[in-house]
């Protein structure tokens, strides 16, 4: 014990008291021995009185020493040992500091974004205050800026991050690369811990990368969670956190590769191939393989065309990764990070189950297919506890024997055909929605009943109420969310200027939304519908002309649509984003907010046009993206 303390005393730059306290703590944790710093200091005083310098005492019997010895050669060895171990464990400490700094930076960004976005939501004055050349320049090229296309990209690319997302992703990548490959690595020639340069530097890289990814791993599980508290604080969209989840996963995969190759390099340098026979090494290899397969199978084409397969395999592989990574990390006492990941995942699952219970548990829903637009409407009695808001969405579990565990996102709004009910809408694609559409078609009247569970509500309500004028540009099924916003806005202020533009392919595509459009009759809102293919008329959904129709809407023909929607302005041709945005800004007498939910190309065009038009008005011009993509 005293020899440790003496070793420390030979290095003036090291705090003797701090070193003694570390010895006390280590003895308590590892040897169940109780010491005090004063006892160690007393032993050091006694130790100093017995030291013999063998270089100045030639009569000393070095082969049978009875006293503690010192000398230049021994001091040199001690110094080399000290520096070697200091480099070894300082690298571990610095790695922890860097991991903590990464998490702290995420927390700081969350707080700043939360303060800004909550101020925008709670204060009309603040929402309309940030106007001028400098704020407009910042918003045009950063907060509203796009890198090429954002939502509208080819099917092999997925979704590109916007400039805000790209900025933070770049910072995460840069920081992780610097930490894992450049910052804070020192190797001492003649290192007494590692046999050679390759063994030492490989271990430094291996420790740094694994500790960094350990701190980042819980964030990887928080970001895609539906009950992500970062989302509530920042009021950022769920799709933004899904984007961060994807890119952070790629960063962690990079660090896993660095860790794997670094430790393999050290194994080779030390000729320790016996490691391949140890459990911790084998579990590490398995965890690396699982992570790599997860990344490959999460590619955009697989998610887009084989989503159910992707989801199933993704969950199974993540479970395997957590288990094998935990077994691997346990040998180095890093297992708590993986327990944290499990806790986050379990918490999110439990809260989702609670939401399902609060919504009423399993309920019978009416599912209706509108073939013209390939739209599904799911109508179910609303919850007495949970209340949706404009912009809300929910995830629905369709209780079929094989797919009950899957959940799919639907936009929600109050039903106009069933009192005390809510309606969920989405377009028919592949997988579950195609399965439901096929069942509706086989029913004879395009309607079926099915037990469902609703996990919701999610989503943030954009503060359109703080702007003098609100303009929504929508297309296809994208009208559902903006419709709810419009309804709420005109209910709270009958004098508010609200515009709703809707682009559809044919008149038949209007049919599914007629009941909702009729709620705007005799209000200040006059919807404008663009029909790009007006020559295609409506056809009845029934094969029997004598069959009793359930409603007048179901048997509408083109003239009937025009008659019932006589308060709606219908135009033939494609919707022109540039003309609408320019005209609405020019005619605005105050602040104006745009919301977009349409085809991805249209949404990108609206965002880009609004960004380029900020200086065309002396009032605040804002943009809210109502489209969710993930």
Automatic annotation (TrEMBL):
The chain crosses the membrane at residues 97-118, 164-185, 205-226, 247-268, 280-298, 305-325. GO terms for cellular component: plasma membrane. SUPFAM superfamilies: Ferredoxin reductase-like, C-terminal NADP-linked domain. It is a multi-pass membrane protein. It is found in: Membrane. Residues 536-555 are annotated as: Disordered. Pfam families: FAD_binding_8, Ferric_reduct, NAD_binding_6. PROSITE patterns: FAD_FR. Residues 545-555 have a biased composition (Basic and acidic residues). GO terms for molecular function: ferric-chelate reductase activity. GO terms for biological process: copper ion import; intracellular iron ion homeostasis; iron ion transport. Residues 343-464 form the FAD-binding FR-type domain. Belongs to the ferric reductase (FRE) family. This is FAD-binding FR-type domain-containing protein. It comes from Pichia membranifaciens. The lineage of its organism: Eukaryota, Fungi, Dikarya, Ascomycota, Saccharomycotina.
């Amino acid at each position: 014990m005293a020899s440790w303390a003496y070793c420390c005393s030979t290095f003036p730059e090291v705090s003797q008291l701090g070193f003694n306290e570390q010895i006390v703590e280590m003895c308590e944790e590892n040897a169940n021995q109780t010491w005090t710093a004063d006892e160690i200091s007393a032993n050091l005083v006694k130790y100093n009185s017995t030291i013999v310098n063998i270089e100045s005492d030639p009569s000393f019997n070095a082969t049978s020493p009875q006293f503690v010895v010192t000398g230049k050669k021994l001091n040199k060895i001690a110094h080399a040992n000290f520096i070697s171990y200091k480099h070894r464990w300082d690298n571990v400490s610095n790695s922890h500091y860097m991991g903590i700094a990464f998490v702290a930076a995420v927390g700081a960004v969350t707080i700043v974004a939360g303060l800004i976005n909550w101020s925008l939501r709670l204060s009309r004055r603040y929402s309309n205050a940030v106007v001028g050349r400098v704020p407009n320049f910042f918003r045009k090229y950063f907060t509203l800026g796009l890198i090429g296309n954002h939502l509208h990209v080819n099917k092999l690319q997925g979704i590109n991050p916007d400039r805000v997302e790209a900025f933070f992703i770049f910072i995460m990548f840069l920081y992780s690369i610097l930490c894992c490959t450049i910052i804070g690595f020192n190797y001492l020639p003649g290192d007494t811990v590692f046999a050679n340069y390759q063994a030492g530097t490989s271990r430094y890289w291996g420790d740094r990368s694994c500790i960094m990814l350990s701190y980042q791993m819980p964030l990887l599980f928080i970001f895609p969670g539906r009950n992500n508290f970062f989302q509530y604080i920042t009021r950022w969209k769920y799709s933004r956190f899904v984007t961060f989840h994807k890119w952070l996963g790629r960063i962690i995969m990079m660090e896993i590769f660095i860790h794997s190759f670094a430790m393999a390099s050290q194994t080779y340098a030390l000729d320790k191939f016996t490691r391949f026979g140890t459990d911790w090494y084998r579990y590490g290899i398995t965890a690396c393989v699982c992570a790599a397969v997860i990344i490959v199978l999460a590619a955009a084409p697989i998610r887009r065309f084989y989503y159910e397969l992707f989801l199933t395999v993704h969950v199974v592989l993540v479970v395997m990764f957590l288990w094998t990574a935990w077994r691997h990390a346990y040998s180095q006492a890093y297992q708590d990070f993986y327990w944290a990941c499990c806790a986050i995942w379990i918490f999110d699952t439990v809260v989702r189950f609670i939401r399902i219970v609060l919504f009423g548990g399993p309920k019978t829903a009416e599912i209706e297919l509108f073939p013209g637009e390939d739209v599904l409407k799911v109508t179910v009695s609303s919850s007495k506890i949970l209340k949706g808001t404009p912009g809300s969405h929910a995830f629905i579990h369709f209780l079929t024997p094989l797919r009950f565990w899957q959940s799919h996102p639907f936009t929600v709004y109050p039903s106009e055909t069933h009192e005390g009910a809510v309606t969920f809408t989405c377009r028919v694609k592949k997988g579950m929605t195609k399965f439901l559409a096929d069942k509706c078609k086989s029913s004879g009247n395009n309607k079926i009943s099915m037990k469902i569970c609703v996990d919701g509500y999610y989503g943030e309500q954009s503060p359109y109420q703080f702007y003098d004028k609100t303009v929504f540009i929508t297309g296809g099924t994208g009208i559902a969310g903006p419709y709810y916003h419009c309804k709420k806005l005109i209910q709270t202020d009958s004098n508010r200027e609200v515009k709703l533009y809707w682009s559809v392919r044919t008149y038949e595509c209007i049919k599914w939304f007629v009941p909702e459009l009729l709620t705007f009759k005799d209000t200040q809102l006059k919807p404008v519908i663009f029909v790009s293919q007006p020559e295609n008329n409506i056809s009845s959904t029934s094969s029997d002309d004598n069959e009793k129709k359930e409603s007048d809407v179901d048997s509408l023909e083109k003239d009937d649509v025009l008659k019932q929607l006589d308060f709606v302005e219908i135009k033939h041709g494609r919707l022109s984003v540039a003309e609408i945005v320019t005209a609405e800004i020019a005619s605005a007498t105050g602040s104006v907010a745009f919301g977009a939910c349409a085809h991805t190309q249209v949404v990108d065009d609206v965002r880009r046009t609004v960004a380029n038009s900020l200086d065309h008005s002396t009032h605040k011009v804002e943009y809210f993206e109502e489209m969710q993509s993930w």
